Structure formats: C-alpha cells, structure tokens
C-alpha cells in the first residue's frame, strides 16, 4: 500500500482542459490516491461542469483567482486536512499516462534525500517531442532552461537522476517537505516560483529527481492564444524576482543583457506555433494571462 497521495489540479476558467485532465486521471484514484480540483474563482461555470462530469471529485472553491502559487498552497492545506502524506501538483492543461504517479511516489519512497520527483513531459500536440526532461539553473549566469526542449525523445532523455529544478507543470513531494520549505512563495505572480521552490528544497540538502518512467503531455501555453510577448514579460518578471530573492546579482545583469535575444527567440516561437498549429484554448482576460498555467 502506497502512502496517501493527493493530486492537486488547479483550475481557472479552464473547464475544457480540466475535464480532459480529469478523464486521463480516471482509474488512478484509489484508497491511497485521490484527486482534488482547486477552482481559482472561475466565472465560466467550471465548478458546475466538473461536478456534473465527476460527481465524486473533491472540489475546493476559492472566491477569487489567487494565482498559481497561492491556489496550490490552498489546495495543499486542504489535502493535508484530508490526510495527504504525498502531494502531486499537476497543471490542468495536461494529459497523464496511466499510473504516472507510481514512479514519482516510488522515487520519494526509495530515496530519503529526494525532495521533489518530476516526470518526463511532452508536448500534447507533438507527443514524441519533449517539453521537459530535466531543468538547468545557474543563478550566477542567469540561465534557467529545460533539458531536451523541442527535441525528439531519445534514450539519452530516459536516464533518471538528479536535475536542477522541477517544473510546476507536474511535481511530487512529501507533504512534510513541502511544509518544511514553506510551500510556494506567493510573491511570485507567475513563473519562477517552481524554480524558487526547487532551490529552497536543495538548500535543505534534498535533491530534485527526474523520473522519465513517469510521463505527462502538456498543452503548452494553452491559455496564451499566441501572446508570446506577454509570456516573455511575465517570465522575465518572475526571473528577476528570483535573482533578487536569491541575491544573484550577476545573473540578473546577464539576464537583462540577453533580453534582446530572448525577444528574438520569442518571435521565433510565435512563428513556429503559428505554422505547427499548436493546440490553444482559453483567452486573455482584460489583458491578463491565466495565472495557473506553466
């Protein structure tokens, strides 16, 4: 019997994606693994649609959109009340492999020094193309990047082991460890709060473990509707907050100097997405991006 595990799925006006995610989680729920949807003050009838489709799902309704960090922290507090020993934070715009949680939980059970376990993540619309196969973070030079980004899956990406940081798209932790590091820093509006959490986990002597046997497919930037510049802006704000919090002044300078290149890369991403017909859903609300997407 595995320890009591809760999968926290954060939703904000994303009923279609959330319902698809929950459908992929069907069959995973058991006496030792449950799913909770945290609704971040949706105004699109998400709660009613979710209840109608999954009437036995645990649903936590928040009065307003608290953002990714605070929304997930609220979900964590609720599942701890329900006896969670392990918690998996999962984006609502994902589809999971059957039993995806088992390798993550087993990694945490077998490795006492592992603080976070994170899966291999693919693009949803290009199921053999990688979005995340580990993370590299070098604060001194301002480097924060995914391993394997946009590359075809290959044996080199199937080796488990330590990595630099976990992505908030999907990560598993012991409840006590999440509590020990203080949860997600709610000062981060969007982006970099997962890197910050990872760095704080590592500061306690624990590792971030990449677990390629666990597989997830991500509808990357499903809420952006092509707004690569807004995505770059929010990523940059998050990164600069990260450098400031961790006093990585050289990294901040390097990051700012490379912003023109990041802008050019953002233009390239926009063109690639336009021509590849990447899956997109949701809309910008009054110029603001959905706060719980990674």
Summarize the structure in words.
The chain has 294 residues and is an alpha/beta fold. It has a single domain, classed as Alpha-Beta Complex (Spore Coat Polysaccharide Biosynthesis Protein SpsA, Chain A), CATH 3.90.550.10. It is 36% helix and 24% strand. It has 9 helices and 12 strands. The strands form 3 sheets. A 5-stranded mixed sheet has the order 3-2-1-4-11, with helices on both faces. β8 (135-138) and β9 form a beta hairpin. α1 (15-25) runs parallel beside α2. It is globular, with a radius of gyration of 18 Å. Mean pLDDT is 89; it is low at 278-293.
Please outline the helices and strands.
Blueprint (H helix, E strand, L loop, with lengths): L4 E7 L3 H11 L7 E8 L5 H8 L4 E5 L4 H15 L4 E6 L2 E3 L4 H10 L3 E10 L6 E3 L2 E4 L4 E4 L14 E3 L6 E5 H6 L12 H11 L3 E12 L9 H18 L3 H9 L1 H18 L18
Helix pairs in contact: 1-2, 7-8
Summarize the structure.
With 294 residues, this protein is an alpha/beta fold. The protein has helices at residues 15-25, 46-53, 67-81, 101-110, 175-180, 193-203, 228-245, 249-257, 259-276; strands at 5-11, 33-40, 58-62, 86-91, 94-96, 114-123, 130-132, 135-138, 143-146, 161-163, 170-174, 207-218.
Q: What is the name of the CATH superfamily? A: Spore Coat Polysaccharide Biosynthesis Protein SpsA, Chain A
Total strand segments:
12
- Count of alpha/pi helices: 9
* Main sheet record: 5 strands, mixed
Radius of gyration: 18 Å
Give the H and E element order: EHEHEHEEHEEEEEEHHEHHH
How far from one another are the termini? 32 Å
What's the pLDDT, averaged over the residues? 89
Helical residue percent band: 25-40%
| Name of the level-1 CATH class | Alpha Beta
The domain tally reads 1
Strand order of the largest sheet: 3-2-1-4-11
Uncertain stretches of 5 or more adjacent residues: 278-293
Structural class: alpha/beta
């Amino acid at each position: 019997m595995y320890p009591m595990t809760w999968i926290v799925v954060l939703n904000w006006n994303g009923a279609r994606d959330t319902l698809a995610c929950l459908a992929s989680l069907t069959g995973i729920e058991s006496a030792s693994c449950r799913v909770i949807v945290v609704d971040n003050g949706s105004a699109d009838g998400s709660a009613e649609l979710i209840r109608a489709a999954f009437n036995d799902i645990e649903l936590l309704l928040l009065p307003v959109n608290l953002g990714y960090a605070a929304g997930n922290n609220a979900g964590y507090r609720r599942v701890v009340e329900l006896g969670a020993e392990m918690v998996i934070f999962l984006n609502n715009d994902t589809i999971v492999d059957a039993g995806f949680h088992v390798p993550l939980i087993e990694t945490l059970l077998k490795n006492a020094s592992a603080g976070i376990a994170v899966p291999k993540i693919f693009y949803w619309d290009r199921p053999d193309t990688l979005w995340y196969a580990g993370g590299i973070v070098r604060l001194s030079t301002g480097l924060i990047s995914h391993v394997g980004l946009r590359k075809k899956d290959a044996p080199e990406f199937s080796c488990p082991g330590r990595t630099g940081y976990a992505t908030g798209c999907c990560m598993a932790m012991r409840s006590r460890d999440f509590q020990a590091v203080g949860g997600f820093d709610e000062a981060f509006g969007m982006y970099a709060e997962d890197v910050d959490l990872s760095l704080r986990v590592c500061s306690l002597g624990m590792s971030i473990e990449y677990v390629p046997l666990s597989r997830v497919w991500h509808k990357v930037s499903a809420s952006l509707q092509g707004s690569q510049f807004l995505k770059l802006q929010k990523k940059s704000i998050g990164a600069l907050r990260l450098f400031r919090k961790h006093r990585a002044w050289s990294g901040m300078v390097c990051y700012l100097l490379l912003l023109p290149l990041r802008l050019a890369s953002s233009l390239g991403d926009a063109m690639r997405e336009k021509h590849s017909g990447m899956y997109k859903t949701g809309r910008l609300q009054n110029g603001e991006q959905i706060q719980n997407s990674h």
